[in-house]
Amino acid sequence: MNKLLALAIFALLCVVINARPNNGAAHVVGGAQKLDVEEAEETLNFSLKQLAKGDNGPNYKVRKIHSASKQLVSGILYKINADIIDGDEEKAKNCDIKIWAQPWLENGYKVTFNCEKEDELVLAHSA
Ligand SMILES: *[C@@H]1O[C@H](CO)[C@@H](O)[C@H](O)[C@H]1NC(C)=O
């Protein structure tokens, strides 16, 4: 399937999901939902891979996902706590990572790292 079509379908799905009626407290539209480890790791893997491709991009790898949620906010906002390995230093650090995905935009993935003993790092990449 071509990439633009896939993105268009993704954008449409977001609209449809956002438009679903509220079926009670467990399904608050726009509320955060728990994200399983597999999906969190896939999401984070993808962002880290895209960032590593960029000039001066960090070369991070996922070691362990501790917790994750996602929320529909003009796209999808992922919040993930994970240990990541910094490829340059070969040591793991614990980070709160936010990935705000708007894949239909150029540089539509905004990735914010809040890692222990480090300043906040905000980066962006495309789909
Ligand atoms: C994430 O990437 C690692 C390699 O860095 C791989 O071993 C793992 O299976 C990937 N996880 C998912 C859920 O795709």
Question: Brief description of this entry?
Answer:
The protein has 127 residues and is of the alpha+beta class. The protein has helices spanning 3-19, 37-53, and strands spanning 33-34, 60-72, 76-86, 91-101, 109-115, 121-125. It has a 6-stranded antiparallel β-sheet with strand order 1-2-3-4-5-6.
What does this 3D model show about the protein?
It comes from Musca domestica. It holds the Pfam family Cystatin. This is Sarcocystatin-A. Belongs to the cystatin family. This protein is an alpha+beta fold and 127 residues long. It has a single domain, classed as Nuclear Transport Factor 2, Chain: A. It has a six-stranded antiparallel sheet with strand order 1-2-3-4-5-6. The longest helix is centred in the first third of the chain and has 17 residues. The structure holds 2-acetamido-2-deoxy-beta-D-glucopyranose (NAG). The site of 2-acetamido-2-deoxy-beta-D-glucopyranose has 6 residues, from helix 2 and strand 2. 2-acetamido-2-deoxy-beta-D-glucopyranose binds next to helix 2 and strand 2.
